[in-house]
Design a protein that fits this description.
- The protein is mainly α.
- Helix content is 57%, strand content 4%.
- Helix 8 packs antiparallel against helix 9.
Length: 225
C-alpha cells in the first residue's frame, strides 16, 4: 500500500493522523515500510496493523515513543509485554470505589520520569518554567504524563522548555476565562448545579482548545488536520 492508502485506512479510527505523522513514526524507527527502486514507500498489512497499535497506545495510554518501541520489540521477540501502568491507563481493578467529591489520578515521580524518558534534572527545569507542578504530597496529576511526553517530543525538534512559557501563560489565561464563566455554578449549593458546572467546564475547555488550534493553524498559514 502507498502512504496515502495507509492514511485512508487509519483515518476511520484516527481522524487526526497525517502523512507527516506516519513519516515521523518511520523516522523514529517504529515502522519500516519497504522501498521501491524509485524510493516510494510500500506498506504491508502488517505495517498498517503496527501503526494502528502505535497510535492506539499513544491515544489511549499516553505512552512516549521509547516505551512504545520497547513494548513492540518485546512482542516481536515473543515476550510477555504488558503495557506499563502510567498516565491515564487503568484496569478494572484500578478503578476506585465511588467517593464524595472529585478524585484525581496520580503518578509518582519515578513513573513520570520513566514515562517521559527524562531525568530529574530535566524535570526540575520543566518545573522551574511552570510546565509541570507536583501536587502537595509530591505526586503528580496524571495529566503531567501527557505534558511531559509532549514537551519531550517538542524537544526533538529543538523547541526548548523555556520556549514553552508563552504557551503555558496562554493556557493559564484560557483556563482563567473558563473558570470565570463557571464560577457561579461551582459556588451553588445545589449538587446538581455543581455537577452541571463540571460538565460545562469540560465543554468550554474543548471549545477553547479547538479555537486555539484553529488560530495556530491560521497564524502558520498551513493546512493541518
Amino acid at each position: 500500500m502507498s502512504i496515502g492508502t495507509v492514511l485512508n485506512a487509519l483515518r476511520d479510527e484516527f481522524p487526526e493522523v497525517t502523512i507527516s505523522k506516519i513519516r515521523f513514526l518511520e523516522s523514529e524507527g517504529l515502522v519500516e515500510p519497504r522501498r521501491t527502486p524509485s524510493g516510494y514507500r510500500k506498506f504491508s498489512a502488517g505495517d498498517v496493523e503496527r501503526l494502528g497499535h502505535i497510535l492506539r497506545m499513544q491515544r489511549d495510554h499516553y505512552l512516549p515513543l521509547k516505551v512504545i518501541r520497547e513494548h513492540l520489540d518485546a512482542m516481536e521477540r515473543g515476550e510477555a509485554a504488558p503495557l506499563p501502568l502510567v498516565g491515564r491507563q487503568r484496569t478494572a481493578e484500578d478503578v476506585p470505589a465511588p467517593v464524595e467529591g472529585p478524585t484525581v489520578a496520580r503518578v509518582g515521580k519515578a513513573e513520570l520520569l520513566a514515562a517521559a524518558d527524562i531525568d530529574e534534572a530535566e524535570l526540575k527545569e520543566w518545573e522551574s518554567y511552570g510546565l509541570i507542578a507536583p501536587l502537595e504530597d509530591g505526586a503528580y496529576d496524571a495529566e503531567a504524563v501527557t505534558v511531559a511526553a509532549l514537551v519531550a517530543e517538542l524537544g526533538r525538534f529543538g523547541i526548548e522548555p523555556r520556549h514553552l512559557r508563552l504557551m503555558k501563560a496562554a493556557a493559564d489565561r484560557e483556563a482563567g476565562l473558563v473558570d470565570q464563566v463557571v464560577a457561579p455554578l461551582k459556588r451553588h449549593r445545589n449538587p446538581q448545579t455543581r455537577a452541571h458546572a463540571e460538565a460545562r467546564t469540560k465543554e468550554l475547555a474543548g471549545l477553547t482548545m479547538k479555537l486555539h488550534a484553529a488560530l495556530v493553524k491560521t497564524a502558520l498559514g498551513v493546512r493541518l488536520p
